[in-house]
Amino acid sequence: MKIGIDAIAMDTPDFYVDLVTLAKVRGDDPDKYTIGIGQDEQAVPPSSQDIVTMGANAASQLVTPAIRASIGMVLVGTESGVDASKSAALFIHQLLDLPEWVRAVELKEACYGGTAALMMARDYVAGHPDKSVLVIAADIARYGLATAGEVTQGAGAVAMIVKAEPRLITIEPDSVYRSTSINDFWRPIYQDTAIAQGKYSTEQYLAFFQAVWDRYQEENKLTADNFAGMTFHLPYTKMGKKALDLALPKAEPQTVKRLKERFDASTRYCRRIGNIYTGSLYLGLLSLLDHDATLQAGDRIGLFSYGSGAVAEFFSGILQPGFSDQLQSAVHARQLDERQQLTVPAYEALFSDKVPYDPEDYRPDPAYFRGQFVLTGVVGQERLYEKRPAHASNATQQLD
């Protein structure tokens, strides 16, 4: 029985900051951001948008009546949880009005959480072939204004339907994974900005990739030449390129050319959205599928997932006949193109206006409400979400 991703969709905030503009304000050479890091634009979430609203917005594109009736689990991988106890999956379950006879769970292991959810979903479907699983990987990456990590911030969600006989891509039973406790990146529960040992984290990302890639080749008798494309966890696009380079020394020249070209296709969404932690790998997969029309059914795609702390996994998927019919490339392009560019002062104000880590009531600014689902406030320490009419927008003025 084939098991894999039947449908996939993304969501990201309707506001962004241009990184060339930001570089100039910060006194940096724009090439440092656009070439050295490999980022062009960065999604900026207002306080009314969080992993729940983005996850629900992404998932709402996929939950048809048939899928709704077949869902057995809702899994959310994130490291931006809105509560230390209650699962974001339960908030999303309510917003989507899903059946009550399902499991709803949140999973955490840094940027690996989305892959953990995907693999749990695959195992569940193997035992329940008539069921489907809604998997959501959603995050908001925050490091702070004018910090070393500022250019690698971002926000977004990727939703996937996992089921038997998928129409998009199978998840092959060839995973190799590795876990080792290290301190390269973490976020204490009392703050919403991460602490990163940047150079060390990069070194560990590459070392973990080399280790699982070597073991994957040995166990599965496959090499880079067997892959039509490879996708990576992308905290920023240059990180994935460094990992890809480690897989290419023994590859045939045509393989090197193919994998580099398709890697570039896989980074286009990341370059415009930024880092979305648990969803970054799947945003890369979606970008590859949306931007490379030469892919064919039967092509093998490699996927490398990395979560600081650290857990890494390399596995592959096989594109299915008619897979391109399941894509929503035009929808994604329109969403990105219709976003509103913020001035740097507006970006800084939006970044600083956040739901506080204290018991006081808080109300987001309705001028920034966007999309079908919004956080309308925190009252009595309870988060309040609202489902609004599709494509609703409260503000038409230019925000600057």
Please provide a written account of the structure.
The chain is α/β, with parallel strands linked by helices. Mean pLDDT is 95; it is low at 394-398. The protein contains 13 helices and 17 strands. The chain is globular. The strands form five sheets. It has a six-stranded mixed sheet, sandwiched between helices. It has a four-stranded mixed sheet with strand order 9-14-13-12, sandwiched between helices. Strands 3-2-15 form a three-stranded mixed sheet. Helix 1 (19-26) crosses helix 2 (30-37), helix 7 runs parallel beside helix 8 and helix 9 packs across helix 11. It folds into two domains: 3-169 and 328-387, Peroxisomal Thiolase, Chain A, domain 1 (3-Layer(aba) Sandwich); 173-321, Peroxisomal Thiolase, Chain A, domain 1, CATH 3.40.47. Helix content is 35%, strand content 24%. Residues 2-163 form the Hydroxymethylglutaryl-coenzyme A synthase N-terminal domain. InterPro entries: HMG_CoA_synt_C_dom, HMG_CoA_synth_N, HMG_CoA_synthase_prok, Thiolase-like. Belongs to the thiolase-like superfamily. HMG-CoA synthase family. This is Hydroxymethylglutaryl-CoA synthase. Pfam families: HMG_CoA_synt_C, HMG_CoA_synt_N.
Task: Quickly list its features.
single chain, 400 residues, alpha/beta, Peroxisomal Thiolase, Chain A, domain 1, 2 domains, six-stranded mixed sheet, four-stranded mixed sheet, globular
